[in-house]
Amino acid sequence: MAELLSAEDPRQHTGVARILNGLCKTFAVGGGLALIGMAIMSLVSIVGRAVFDAPLLGDYELVQAFCAVAVSLWLPYTQWIGANVIVDFFTTRTSARFNAVLDAASMLMLAGFSAVIALRSWTGLVDLKGSGDSSMLLEIPTWIVYVPIVASFMLLVAVCLYGLLEKFQIIRGRARPAGPSQGVQA
Amino acid sequence: MTGVEWGAVMFGLLLVLLALRVHIAIAMMLAGSIGYIVVYGVDPLLNYFKNAAYARYSVYDLSVVPLFLLMGQFATHGGLSRALFRAGNAFIGHWRGGMAMAAVGACAGFGAICGSSLATAATMGQVALPELKSHGYSQRLSTAVVAAGGTLGILIPPSVPLVIYAILAEQNIAKLFMAAFIPGIIAAIGYMMVIGIIARVRPSDAPAGDRYTWAQRLRCLAETWPVLLIFTVVIGGIYGGFFTPTEAASIGTVTTALVAWKSGGLRGKGLAECIYGAAAATGMIFMILLGADVFNVFLALTRMNIELAAWVKALDVSPIMVLFVIIFIYLVLGCIMDSLSMLMLTIPIFFPIIMGIDLMGLSPEDKAIWFGILALMVVEIGLITPPVGMNVFIISSMAKDVPMKETFRYVMFFLASDLLRILLIVFVPAVALIALKF
Predict the structure, then answer these.
(1) Is A144 in CB contact (< 8 Å) with chain B?
(2) A117 in contact with chain B, both atoms CB, cutoff 8 A
(3) Please, what is the end-to-end C-alpha distance for chain A in angstroms?
(4) CB B279 to CB A84 under 8 A?
(5) What does pTM read for this prediction?
(6) Is the peptide bond preceding residue B44 cis, with omega within 30 degrees of 0?
(7) What is the pLDDT of residues A165-185, one digit of tens each?
(8) Hey, is the C-beta of A185 within 8 angstroms of any chain B C-beta?
(9) Which residues 36-75 of A are in CB contact (within 8 Å) with B?
């Protein structure tokens, strides 16, 4: 139960999995620190506004940038620990192998979409860098925020491909399927 | 085929994909992308993907979601759930069923600083289940109480599903939070009354506990000060218009972090655990948000939802029937889907329908807020209905010696109170809207 609440991952990893695990956790902690930084920044802005009548310049656009950074950095971790919930109501009586085939297809689709989003966001990044687009008050170049987005979706592709391999092993009967997936939801 | 027909076909494909274990974010992305390509071509879609992630994730109002989820994690690690439960028990624990009522009250209190039902159920389960057991409460009542009480986590603001509704329906978050407050309190009182009735009918399920002195009560109450402070600042600040929801959530996050740090909850791996917990829940929501964005852009281009709303408006059925059909669809979907997926799937379709029909002469602004509260209450029920009741799953994993069937059996009594409350809000919208009149 505790692992569901804290979403801690009890698995022991070796090889590629260990690298992916480390990367996902590093990204997650990075996102968390960005979010905490954003909260403290908002606090400074409120105090500035209330006490000195001088809110932090550009606090609105900083929140937008920090939010995008934090949230995108958290995406690979969510997929890594399998917290994305699915409807398994119609497939409780089907065989584990059949379900693994479906899951593999789903994983492949997510890998594909993540790759498209990573590549297209990269193009978006290059475009924005070229046009010199920046935020209104602080003039933070917009493309900077695209960097964690591209990185996160690339990591997401790797996580999905690894998941696909795991599913293949179940399909070929070399590994036991994991227990019923239980996600974390709000 | 026309755009509307393509919209309908892709919606059908989406439902098939969902049944085939495809995660809702991917299902929405795939169905939306195929539809987009068929109707408009590949290039516009690729162009859209260039900025889709950034555009979706850099929305100011959405930043409260990760903040509220992180705040809930800090509150859990700060031991605030225990303080709330103790205080509630000191006051009413000597009533018949009083300790279970205290657990409901503590869930409500925790819900006031946490926007997540699962986190509320889980943390209250850890605190209340052992106590209820040692005081002779039947296990099935205890598990049902905490599972149902957990739903107060989202019924009482702050509430993540309400934020999502606010974004999808383009409504004011502060007003929605305010409107959710009284129905949330009614929910808590309703659950307590259910416990009271069970305690009368089956005294063996719910004995009376010890009576505390007033000095002890006040001491216990004093320990809940961080909750009172955070709630007052966060919710009061949002209602009073002193802060934006994001600023209020920032204050709440930093304060709960300090409380958790002071109580030792962040030592060792504590901080990382809080971040991982918030990350997993947030990542899931924002993945679906991205998928929903792709699908909804496609739907909007086909005008399917607008046409559907116009068609429903022209139908010769009473508006209240339409509303009940929508509620029924939510109850059925709630049995197999989680609350947020359900909202993101249905609000773009149901919201225009509701806005198009006349419901008890409500103004459009009032109707939008009222339907948001109603939708929240209905999807929340999905957390405790079989076969897939997430709250019950969580509590069952903590109390392994109680058969899940027994828990579901007792949850039914609480479900009855939920349904009565939904009828109350359907026929007396003022219950939700009166808080907006001040």
Answers:
(1) no
(2) yes
(3) 16
(4) no
(5) 0.89
(6) no
(7) 989 988 887 666 554 444 433
(8) yes
(9) 36, 38-43, 45-46, 60, 63-68, 70-72, 74-75
For chain A, say whether B390 makes contact (Cβ under 8 Å): yes
Residues of chain A contacting B255 with CB distance shorter than 8 Å: none
Q: Let me know: does B84 contact B126? Beta carbons within 8 Å.
A: no
Structure confidence by residue, pLDDT tens digits, B190-213? 999 999 999 999 988 888 888 899
ipTM of the complex: 0.87
pLDDT band at B390 (very low <50, low <70, confident <90, very high): confident
pLDDT, position A2? 32
Contact residues on chain B for A46, CB-CB shorter than 8 A? 243, 247, 250-251
Does any CB of chain A come closer than 8 Å to the CB of residue B272? yes
C-beta contacts of B131-134 below 8 A and 24+ residues apart: B131/B85, B131/B89, B131/B99, B132/B99, B132/B100, B132/B103
pLDDT for the residue A182:
41
What are the CA-CA distances from residue A70 to residues A37, B38, B50, B271 (Å)?
10, 34, 19, 16
